Amino acid sequence: MTFKTKESRLFLVLGCFFVANAILSEFIGVKLFSVEETLGIKKFDINLLGVKNLSFVMSAGVLTWPIIFIMTDIINEYFGVKQVRFLSILTSILIAFAFLVVWGSMHLSAADFWVHQNINGEDLNMNNAFSGIFGQGMWIIVGSIIAFIVGQLADVLIFHRIKRVTGEKALWLRATGSTLISQLIDSFVVIFIAFYLNPQYHYSWQMVAAIGLVNYTYKFVVAILMTPILYVVHAIIDGYLGKELAHKLTQMAGRG
């Protein structure tokens, strides 16, 4: 395939952004950050389902997830269900491959001169730091991959169900609506597998539900805020493709 046509080049670019951001999300996701402190506001003290002192502590992976869901909706809009499914399965395989490579790299014998280094005035064991950052637990990896696949497939199906009702109108409804529901699924699946089924943690269902609801609240707000960006991206792509080709692609995508 030579990618000579506008639509083939568009699919290549969108697909690359989709895959790259999904893999990035997995690796930066090991860092947890406080949303309130990042924004410079006082931490919320939330009591939910008997779980006290909850606040908006999120995985850094949320930085790239809005991009992934925008890519999902755009690819869905122009190329249809089959292409999103293909990319979702491919991405899951690549994420698993990436973790396998990282696992192998963790078992390499570190060079003596590299192990102990001074970073920002602090002596660090670089080998331990490397393993701590990249060595996510197997339950978390499995939960993350399953949540990604389930969330993506749900997003695709809901997107097209809404589109059958609204037609070409109300892009915001099918895009944001499908994202909100798929994010709800994603938020709970990964926590359930990684922390409820995992015998190392075995969180109570109240803890899983409370953390999931807090995380989903953040994702809900971000999804709403990202809606105007979706329209901007859509307009740029329509300008690149031309009105006739853009309409042709969306019509073909709607047929599955």
Briefly, what is this?
It holds the Pfam family Vut_1. With 256 residues, the chain is mainly α. The protein has 10 helices and 6 strands.
Describe this structure as you would to a colleague:
- The chain has 256 residues and is mainly alpha-helical.
- The protein has one domain.
- It has helices spanning 6-28, 35-39, 65-79, 81-106, 112-115, 126-134, 138-166, 171-197, 205-241, 243-254; strands at 32-34, 46-48, 51-54, 57-59, 116-119, 122-125.
- The strands form three sheets. It has a two-stranded antiparallel sheet with strand order 1-4. A two-stranded antiparallel ribbon has the order 2-3.
- Helix 4 runs antiparallel to helix 6 (126-134).
| Sheet having the most strands | 2 strands, antiparallel
Count the E strands. 6
Helix content: over 70%
Count up the helices: 10
Count of discrete domains: 1
Q: Ends: how far apart?
A: 22 Å
- The residue-averaged pLDDT reads 84
* Helix-and-strand structural type: mainly alpha
